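Ticket #4471: structure output looks truncated?

Reporter: J.K.
Steps to reproduce: submitted the chain below (477 residues) through the standard prediction queue, then opened the result file.
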Amino acid sequence: MTASQSTQTLIKPSDAAAWIACIRRAWLDKHQSITVEPDAFNQLLSDLGLAHEAAMLARLESQYPVTQAISFDHTQVLMQQGAPVIYQGRLVDEQQGLAGYPDFLIRHESGEYQPADAKLSLSENKKAIQIQLGIYRRLLRNELPAMVFLGDGRTAWLGDEVNPVVDEFITGMRALLDLPQQPAVRYSHSKCRICPYDAHCRPDFEAKEDISLLYGIHGKAAEHLAEAGISTISQLAMSTVESIPDVPYLKGNKRKHRAILQASSFLSGKVFQLNKATLPEGTWIHFDIEDNPLTPNRERHVYLWGFLVPAYTRENFDYVWTDDEAGDYKGWLSFLQKIEEYRSNYSPLVLAHYSNHEKATIRQYAERYTMENHTTVAWLLGANSPLFDMQNPVLDCLVLPLQGYGLKDICKHPDLVNFQWENEESGSQWSVAQFNRFRLETNLAEKQKLKAEILRYNRDDVIATRRLEVWIRKLFC
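Returned output as attached by the reporter:
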């Protein structure tokens, strides 16, 4: 194998992300790869990553002569010439079947080169980063640590400690490349639904009635159940608690009972009630936030605190908005003021939200601005908090014919809540992408249009939690 040959069969650091997510995805990337246009959020991440790389390039250019490599051979020539910094170097090891493309190769005082990558990540401990930089070190054949220019401005160093995970990756990828057929895997709702090969794999999972299609059934649990003779959803639905062995991620009668009902619900579309839901008394205000994790300092900025107040129509949508992270503290104080107004006008007050994200964010803001003892903050986070997570009664009391129990999963289902968002493409990541477009937009009319789209999405979120509340009350009345 030579550098001039196709690199499709070479193992590359960029394969690491797919390999970590799913070995079948890594195999398909090598044998049946498809091109998928990135969505708005992933395009945003790509753009920010390129901007971060450009900033690191500019910083290095201010200190050293930088030369851009244009091929594998050119990279070797530049290294032999002792170029101080090589940008977009290309490295290959024909014997090991490895190729790598480090952002930078920086000449050490010893005359050897250190690889460096610019990463938006805030941590060098991510497995994919360690594999990528570890492979660069292996291709350079020296003991110098690799450098990572992280998104928060830190420079991290990776040395021999990453060798075990690099060895594991290379061994695993070599075995994958030798497979004549795609490897057997289990379904994962969180990973598969965002995978470009979902449409390729799902028919096979469904045809086999793979147990891992069920909510709450981990892939490892499915493997052990198959060994015990329960390999399909129909078999699980016909099982008894006593007939199911204790396996990883599925131990105890309560979990086994739920797994059986989940299988029955999947097959029949029925809703099963485990317990009677108890909802707090008071005036309900539905609450949802939109926050941006991609700020320059990587502190999440809540740009929208949204509420639906009585009488719960579209006209009753209320909110606090900030244009950028410079207004973060002001937005936080406005949120607290809004809560104080609600507390005064509605007693007792219930602030209903879905999942723990809202409460966790309030706690982070209290710590950020050292306001844990503020009267309203202490009330929000205290024993008598008005915050009520609607996900809890759903998970504790209901078994639904769903693979995921997110707000949209439940509310969009035509046989459940049956509430549809105005913009089908909208979602939390979509909102972040739109907000970052808003921040950069200079045309006032376009800026207002983007803001209006985000507000409509958040309004639909809080209306959805209201519809969910009404649906739950009807179930248990």
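Triage note (M.O.): checked the attachment and the full token line is present. The first helix runs from residue 16 to 21.
Status: closed, working as intended.
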